[in-house]
Amino acid sequence: MGLLDDLNIFALFGLGDATGLELLFAACALVGGILFILYFVLLMVGGIATDVFDGLFGIDVDVGTDASFKALTFQGIMAFFMFFGLAGLYTLKSDGSNTIAILAGGIAGGISMLGTGKLFELFVTLQQDGTTSLDEAIGSKGQVYLRIPHDGVGQVSVEVNGTLRTYNAKSHDETEIATDDFIEVTEVIGEVLVVKRI
Fold first, then answer.
1. Is residue 69 within 8 Å of residue 118, measured between CB atoms?
2. Cα(32)–Cα(34) distance, integer angstroms
3. What digits encode the pLDDT tens for the residues 148-172?
4. For the whole model, what pTM was predicted?
5. Given pLDDT bands bounded at 50, 70 and 90, which one contains residue 192?
6. In angstroms, rounded to a whole number, what is the distance separating the alpha carbons of residues 58 and 56?
7. Which own/partner contact pairs does 1-7 have at CB distance under 8 Å and 24+ positions apart?
8. What number of other Cβ atoms are within 10 A of residue 65's Cβ?
9. What are the DSSP calls for 87-136, one per residue?
């Protein structure tokens, strides 16, 4: 235990003779940094970080009229604390006054929080729905996958938006269309494509 008695954790980070304001900045940087690392480790492990942290803290506050831009999210607050602490501590250690250090920390924290919000706003705009409207299939050509009986429904494979998809289909003139026949989509009724042989 003699070795642990001499261990000063603040001395490891160069804060052995830290003042109250230095300790505040160091604590902000440490808490923000640990939560930042923990958040991204959980995000990489299985995407559970957003559910855990957002559900635990519930601090999503909308800023402005755009609901997709949320500056006061957990990620934004983590970034604020981390950069507030780092910039304030750096300014104090660079022989800056307490007022300048608080101002520098506040500016760096605010910019990082807004930057994080804008980054997540960009991520939201990059997301794609992945669904295709059946109306987009009109005019597409394809092939019968399962025979279309004269009075019933079969299935066709049609390329829509560069992706080959399988849909339920019926004949436009109620004639049977055999498997592997080539077709063209003429209209859509509900969830069923109306096709004709080509």
1. yes
2. 6
3. 998 899 999 998 888 888 999 999 9
4. 0.49
5. very high
6. 6
7. none
8. 6
9. HHHHHHHTT--HHHHHHHHHHHHHHHHHHHHHHHHHHHHH-------GGG
Domains, the chain, ordered by start: 12-126 (no CATH), 134-197 (2.40.50.140)
Give me the torsion for CA of 63, 65, 57, 104, rounded to 10°: -20
Helix or strand run (H / E) with residue 45:
helix 20-46
Mean pLDDT on 88-93: 89
Is the distance from CB of 154 to CB of 170 less than 8 angstroms? yes
- What tokens appear for 33 in the block? 């940094």
Instruction: Report the number of secondary-structure helices (H) and strands (E) in the chain.
Output: 6, 5
pLDDT(177) > 70: yes
d(CA 77, CA 71) in angstroms, rounded, equals 8
Question: What's the rounded Cα separation, in Å, for the pair 38 and 30?
Answer: 12
Provide the token pair at 186. 């003429």
Query: Could you tell me the CA-to-CA distances from 6 to 18, 27, 55, 112 in Å, in that order?
Result: 17, 21, 41, 37
